[in-house]
What we know:
Chain A is mainly α and 329 residues long. Helix content of chain A is 71%, strand content 1%.
Amino acid sequence: MPADAPRLHFVSDEIGRGAGPGPRHGGESNVKLRDNDHVVGYVFAAPFILGFLIFTLYPIFSSLYYSFTDYNLFESPRWVGFDNFEKMFTADDKYWKSVSVTLTYVLASVPFRLAFALAVAMMLNKAFTGIGLYRSAYYLPSLIGGSVAVSIMWTQVFGDHGLVNSALALIGIHTDTSWIGNPSTALWTLIALSVWQFGSSMLIFLAGLKNIPNSYFEAASVDGANAIHRFFKITLPLLSPIILFNLIMQTISAFMTFTPAYIISRGEGGPLDNTLLYSLYLYRRAFQFYEMGYASAMAWVMLLVIAVIALVLFKTSKYWVHYEAKGER
Amino acid sequence: MKKAVASFLTAALLLAACGGGGGSSSSSTDNQGTGSPGSGTASSGSDKAPVTLRVAWWGGQSRHDYTLKVIELYKQKNPHVQIETEYASFDDYWKKLAPQAAANGLPDVFQMDYSYLSQYGGRGQLEDLGPYTKNGTINVQDINENTLSGGRIDGKLLAMNLGSNALGPTVDPQILQDAGITLKQDWTFADLDDIGAKLKAKGKLIASDLRHDVYFPYYLRSQGQHMYAADGTSLGYTDDKYFIDYYTMYQRWYDNGYFLPLDKLAQKKGTPEDDEMVLGNAAISFSWSNQYILAASTAKRPLDIVPLAQWNQNKPLFLKPSMFFSIAKSSKVKEEAAKFIDFFINDIDANKIIMGERGVPVSGKVKEALKPLLTPDQVKVFDYVSWVEQNSSQIDPPNPVGAVEVDKLLKDIAEQILYKKLTVEQGAAKFRQEANAILAKNKK
């Protein structure tokens, strides 16, 4: 148990104070304090521990159980073995549609978002007046990005009488299609929403950029490297551990995207199922068709897929991530 | 991340603790003499113990407004009752209700629809209202047995009908007249070709759409067929001809631009406020008779209600309980919930506020009392519903379990046909096979 360390510290602290005024039987009070220390610690940690056990660990394992059952919420679950998985992989066209929509979404939104975040971070990594204001302003969309309000705003922006069509009209293109209702553009409005929420990656990139010593750039400049060289030879390699971190975090969160797709398509995943993200289809199976067993099975497949992808990213990282102190890896 | 989760959970626990404290405050102040002066005296005023009812319904803004007034009236007459309300549009309402059912947290009184009755009632979520009608808590003496029976499943009264209803399109006579259209008394869906062309010449639509889960079954009835087999284990028809006939027509209307493009339809909320006919862009809104009043009051111009196309082929029209109130089996205040329902269907003052917006009142006494007060619009609806009573046949039994999935399937396939991803023939076969596969799960 790592809990030894703080206890030791407290004990020695007590001995130290024991030398001060006030009579005290060192041994006895040590024992007491040691216990108190544990109790207080657990009491403070209790909300989290209880919350984790009740709201996270228990649901996780019960969903594993449900994934092998037929469970409609109202009647008790019935064990069906691997039926749900079999149906999912062999007899459910919609499932594969949702997989392909989700993969498109992840493969498009994550690189765009990271590239955008890095570009903005580079711009904000300069010193000029009002830089603080700009940094906050660009971070703002991320603070409110996942919310319902923004998704509703998005339906206005890309709707048939929305901001985008008004802007297009200004440059002479008159259209009244609803970008959200059009099967070929609907998913891209979701991707645009995701890219727009680049703030948290940007912040991390910015911190990474600040850690690159200026002297490298100066030396390279003296040797005649231009801005493009400096970016690819210095910035990118030194930033690659940060990129890896951002890539993994953003990929995971992209796979789990739910709210924007739910709000924008009014829970339907339409038009023509072109915004039927995996999580949305899972939600439909669970809460519209009451097939909790099937939905749980879907959730577990998703978990495994995300785990595998994260593992692959880690494994391949040694080919492109640059660590300055090579020995420490 | 972990910190965020922990602090969220802490906050949630704290909230839960506060909530629990609120509910049990009367007992805790009894034990502790030193409780704060305010909380100790709260319940001593009235002789009845305070009760909190949760009431939920779907609808548009004006239904929300007047229902809140009815609730206000109930609270005046019953000061010990507190009422918490939850309301949404139809589609959102059901998406919200399902997780509540799963969590054993259904509202005490909630609006129920015929299409969801077996889903909820068949799975033991709804309280049998029979005992409450027998002991007089819910007075049904002025209600016809035929009117009540729509809420029965296996002999149990699981839902109380709030009003009678029939399919009846709302039309804008001005737009029809401007386009030189006179609707024949015995018009059919085939007439929509001509009507649509004339309206298009004036830049108007026929309507936003024809809801697939309502009008395809209606068309089947006009062909002497039914959407679902009586035992609910398969579709009611075996010949793809009906599907092909109906959706060939539908596709033609859609391709000709008589209906709203799907990309715009997808953004509609289904409230009267954004109905294409109400907005003045279409001649017809294919809806239920009770929706006429809301449409008329939202549109603020003269509208009319007409018999639905096809009505005199095999009597496809039917009287439908427009909506019900049900009591959740999990409710802890069923007696009070039943009293509220009784008030809603029998109280004259309450119904003077409701004015038949939830369908023609089920109680004969209420109907009589309202007659002199009706506006011309309301008279139209009452008259139309009694006309339908004479020109209709028995309603199909409540949709079987799995029907929600079948309805969704029908909508998906219809959209694929309209977007030309499937031919009508392919769609017909695909729908029949997949729907039958879903319904086959009901075989015992």
